[in-house]
Amino acid sequence: MKKQAALLAVSVICALGLLLLQPSRSAQAAVVVTLGTASAPLSSNGAVGTGLFTPVSTIVISEGAPGDFPIASAVTASIVAPVGWEFLPGGLDTSASTYSGITSLQAVATASRIELTYTAVPLPGIDVVRIAGLMARPMSDATGEGAASGMGVNGTASIVGFTNTVFITLTSTVGSGGFAAPPVYSPDNLAQVVFKGGAVTQLAQDLRAVGASGAWAQDARGAFALYIVNAGFVNDAFNRAFPGGFATVTPLTIVRDAPRTPPR
Predict the structure, then answer these.
(1) CB 114 within 8 A of CB 153
(2) What does DSSP say about strands 166-173 and 72-80: parallel, antiparallel, or unpaired?
(3) pLDDT recorded at residue 53
(4) What pLDDT sits at residue 37?
(5) By the 8 A CB rule, do 207 and 253 touch?
(6) Neighbouring residues of 129: CB distance < 8 A, sequence distance ≥ 6
(7) How many angstroms separate the Cα of 97 from the Cα of each of 61, 92, 101, 246?
(8) Helix (H) or strand (E) holding 226
């Protein structure tokens, strides 16, 4: 009887030892987030899907304690787009920390959310996930100026502190407008200026304010496009070249009387 009790005690001690040697993944805290952020101008014509896509900074998700990303295979979670915003669909760049328990990681953007899929194995380190390459834009002028947040939602995953946590904050603006300095017109009625950014309607307002009748801007191909103040449909080509207005400061050549040829 004593021998059996001794053997039982040894077995219990060995089992406890094996348990202590196993990596601990018990969840003790919620994930810690470095927000993805961006600021973009509203669409120039108010139509859905005509705004300018803007890069969103890298989203970083760190475990507050080992186990926040539970051991699982090919489980999913989502980050929902902020209200009034849409993402550019496509695959995103992802990475996990060195010695992380996350062995497989994928993030794909749809117009309305980021779909995150991961597999995690038992390792004692802190998992850190990075999601980069996301592009977003305001859906229309109806979005209104201001900030909006994108929240997390667990799918088949059970990531601690993921659901209802803010991962993205995006700010829509109407553009600061105006020019960096007052225009100085040449004898040919031309002036080089820097537009501070904003919708095409903002540009038109600023042109009128400085007595200009038109502006030349270079599109993504380097070709000049002409905007004529108060010209209505004549500006269709310009609006197609700059459908979301100007997200950042932009050099322009402005004129008091619109020339027939681009500036040299």
Answers:
(1) no
(2) unpaired
(3) 80
(4) 85
(5) no
(6) 60, 61, 62, 69, 94, 95, 96, 97, 102, 105, 116, 118
(7) 10, 17, 9, 37
(8) strand 224-228
Is the distance from CB of 157 to CB of 118 less than 8 angstroms?
yes
If asked whether residues 142 and 194 sit together in one domain, one would say: no
Distances 65 to 69, 155, 157, 235 between C-alpha atoms, Å: 9, 21, 17, 57
Q: How much of the chain is helix, strand and coil, in % rounded to 5?
A: 15, 40, 45
Same domain membership, residue 117 and residue 42:
yes
Same domain, 58 and 135: yes
* First CA to last CA distance, the chain: 104
> 198: left (phi > 0), else alpha (psi -120 to 50), else beta?
left
**pTM strictly above 0.85:** no
Which range of residues forms the domain containing residue 46?
Answer: 32-173
Location of structure tokens 């705004």: 51
- Please give the backbone phi and psi of residue 161, each rounded to the nearest 5 degrees, phi first: 75, 15
SS3 193: strand
Q: In the chain, which stretches have pLDDT less than 50? A: 1-25, 27, 44-47, 142-143
Domain end among 114, 141, 173 = 173
- Clarify whether residues 60 and 152 are in a common domain: yes
For residue 125, what are its two tokens?
A: 């380190």
Q: 3-state DSSP call for residue 129?
A: strand
Please indicate, yes or no, whether residues 225 and 251 belong to a single structural domain of this protein: yes
